[in-house]
Design brief:
This protein is mainly alpha-helical. It has one domain: Four Helix Bundle (Hemerythrin (Met), subunit A), CATH 1.20.120. Helix content is 76%, strand content 0%. The protein has five helices and no strands. It has helices at residues 4-16, 19-39, 46-68, 77-99, 106-121. Helix 2 runs antiparallel to helix 3 (46-68), helix 2 packs antiparallel against helix 5 and helix 3 (46-68) packs antiparallel against helix 4 (77-99). The longest helix is centred in the middle third of the chain and has 23 residues, at 46-68. The two termini are 28 Å apart. The model is unreliable at 12-17 (pLDDT under 50).
Length: 126
């Protein structure tokens, strides 16, 4: 559960971020949530945390899927196709983890989110 000062800070931060920075922030937040679930694997409340973080990541990627398929999306077709292919992989991995949970299976999702966020910010891959 989120404490109120942190929640207020995150709301202000989101309102001041624009476009790609906001997308990068959302991807990093999902990656960090998954990393925390991986790092606390087996501790009390783990199953609920895992479901929460996987559902959150799935919503993030559903947003990207919806955005990328909009007719007025300005991205080149090749990038759209790559993001869609990546989102299909992410969906499959999420369902695989839900069916057969293992902490190491989160690693690729964490890496994908972090690398895509770095690309959106113009950083070198992490």
């Amino acid at each position: 559960m989120q404490n109120k000062p942190l929640g207020a800070y995150e709301n202000v931060e989101k309102s001041t971020l624009g476009g790609r920075d906001l997308e990068a922030h959302v991807l990093l937040r999902a990656a960090n949530m998954m990393a925390a679930a991986r790092d606390t694997w087996g501790q009390p409340g783990h199953d609920e945390r895992l479901e929460e973080v996987l559902t959150h990541n799935q919503k993030v990627w559903s947003f990207f899927q919806a955005e990328i398929t909009q007719p007025d999306n300005p991205l080149p077709d090749e990038i759209k196709q790559n993001v869609l292919a990546l989102s299909v992989f992410v969906d499959k991995r999420i369902f695989e983890i839900m069916a057969y949970p293992e902490p190491g299976k989160l690693d690729i999702l964490i890496e994908i989110n972090r690398n895509l966020a770095a690309g959106l910010r113009g950083d070198q891959a992490v």
